[in-house]
Structure formats: structure tokens, C-alpha cells
Amino acid sequence: MMGLSQSSYHYDPKVTRAEKEEWQADIRGKIEQIRVEQPRLGYRELLQHLKRQGVPIGERRLRGIIQKFSLQIRPRKKFVRTTQSNHDCIVYPNHIEGMAINGINQVWATDITYIRIENGFVFLAVVIDLYSRKVIGYDVSKRIDAELTISALRMAIQRRKPPQGVIHHSDRGVQYLCDAYVAVLKENEFIISCSRKGNPYDNAFVESFMKTLKENEVYMWNYRTFLDVVERLPYFIEEVYNKKRLHSSLNYLTPEEFEMKLEVEYQNPVSRPELHL
User: Fold this and answer.
1) Cβ distance 71 to 47 under 8 Å?
2) What is the pLDDT of residues 5-15, one digit of tens each?
3) pLDDT tens digits for 80-119?
């Protein structure tokens, strides 16, 4: 980057028009580099990434550059739910409404989304730790069934080795309330929690991840085959979302960074922020 500070950009009469344009072009290049892996980041997240790189720019100037070079994000279609709630399975109460959590492995949330491919659909099931927003389990399948959701859950269990009493929260879909899935939950001593009927906000954090996935990965890469999905999705989840996606609710840390910070705090206890659901 050229040696032009933000104060010089605004106030130094010796700064030429050509230097200002070069500075703007340099910022544009950095934005485009960031968006190679996260193509639908808004200006707030871009600002935090630029700050990490030591770029001297404020919010107003960044928004001006985004507008000048037509770097705005175009809106996408709304998220489509995949819940199959017409079943005779037991529906459990909502245990997270109004809850305050202050650590990982207190609430795991789950959901399913679809990914359109050339000859139909592929389905993705995820398990997310609500406190850190980290995806801890996932699987993809051509079928939207209990085998898909159980596989994602078992990955999360294997990775986290959760203590007794973790709340497992899901919608009322049969894939999460069928006997086979509930048996795994009870075997691992989870507390089972379900969203209220017809209330999309009860699982808003997971749906937020699904939206990020669709806008920053699925829509951008235009998957054509099942193989495209199984080869690309794990990279996005593990290397982009968990390790590079900044969250305002995590003080602009990534889920991976946030959990590493928590490990240090567990060794040197301090008051941790609470997440109110």
C-alpha cells in the first residue's frame, strides 16, 4: 500500500488527485482480496478485516469507495425452511427461551438446509455451539433423513466430548425428534429442546449461519453436482467460516479465535460476556 495516511488523504493539500485515486484503488484491491473467500461481506465486516491489516480507513471513507467502485452486495432470495413437522413424535419444550449462556458446550443448535444442484437437491445438516457460533458438526446427503442429522451430531460429539446436560436445540422436524436421533441424545445425556411452533426466531443463530453459507459460498460457486458440494462445503465451514468469518457479537473475532480466547480465560478466570437468547 502507498504511504498515504487517512489524515493526509483528507487534509494535506500536497496530496494530488492521482495519489488519492491510487489510494482508493489500493483499498479496492484489498476489498477484492478479502472477498475471494468471503464474497458477500458487508462494509462493517470489511472495515474490521482492513483494520487487522493495518489499513488506515474509517467507515465513511470505506463506504464511499464501495459505492464508487460498485462493490455493494446485491440482496439474495430469502432462506427456505426444510422442517418436516407433520409427525407423531414427542415434541419437547423450549429450554433456551430467555436463557443467558456464558460458555461453550451449554447450548448446541441444529438445522438443515438445501443446496440446489443440476439434477435436484443436496441437504446439509449442521450443529453449532451457540456461544462461540462455531460449526462443530455437519454432514451432507442426497436424502433429508435421520441418517443425515445423526451423522452431523456424532461428528460434534466426537469432536467436543460434551459434558452431561448440554442443551440440544432444534426445530420440530421429524429428523430431530425421531426415535433414532433422540436415542443418541439420551445416550449422551443431552437436554432436548425444541423451537416453538411457527416461530422462526427460536433458531435464528443457526439460520443466520445458513444465510451466510448460501450468500458467501453456495450462490457464488454455483454447484452443479453432489461431488461439488462434498468437496467444497467442508473447506468453507472449516477454513472460512470457523477461522476467518468475523462476528460482531464476538467482538469481531472468528469462532476459532473466540474459543481460543475462552481457553485462556478458563485458566485465568475473568467475567465473561453473556449471550441472551
Assistant:
1) no
2) 544 444 455 66
3) 445 555 557 888 999 998 888 989 999 999 999 998 888 8
Model-level pTM?
0.70
For residue 186, what are the CA distances in angstroms to 111, 165, 182?
19, 10, 6
Q: Which of 159, 216, 209 is nearest to 188 (CA)?
A: 159
Phi, psi at 107, each rounded to 5°: -135, 125
Cα dihedral value 201, 132, 63, 211, nearest 10: -40
Alpha carbon dihedral 221, 222, 223, 229, in 10-degree steps, equals 40
In angstroms, the Cα distances linking 42 to 74, 144, 169 are 10, 32, 29
Strands (E), the chain: 100-101, 107-117, 120-129, 134-141, 167-170, 191-194, 275-276
C-alpha cell at 74: 446485491
Q: From CA 202, how far away is CA 126, in angstroms rounded? A: 16
Contact 162, 105 (CB under 8 A): yes
